[in-house]
Amino acid sequence: MRFTVERATTGRRVGSACRHVTSSNRGRARCTRYVAAKGSATLTATKGANRRTFRGRLNGRALAAGRYRLVARATDAAGNRSAIRRAAFRIVRR
Length: 94
Description:
Blueprint: E1 2-14, E2 17-19, E3 30-42, E4 57-58, E5 61-62, E6 66-73, E7 85-91
């Protein structure tokens, strides 16, 4: 399984997409966009339910306070991928 982390940031609605804020689109409707954090984590899992504790660190560095979502995708030995699963979480000040 590969786990990646995405940070929630503000954006502006441009058509059907949520884009980063620029001077030309700053008057448009607000939206939440998710930007991938650097790095990922992998876990060798077995068939069925697996559990792993997430400690708020990615590649040895602590995540800053804010809203995030964890994105998980499994891949078998033949390269077949599962559906993407997401779970939202929040890092608070320590």
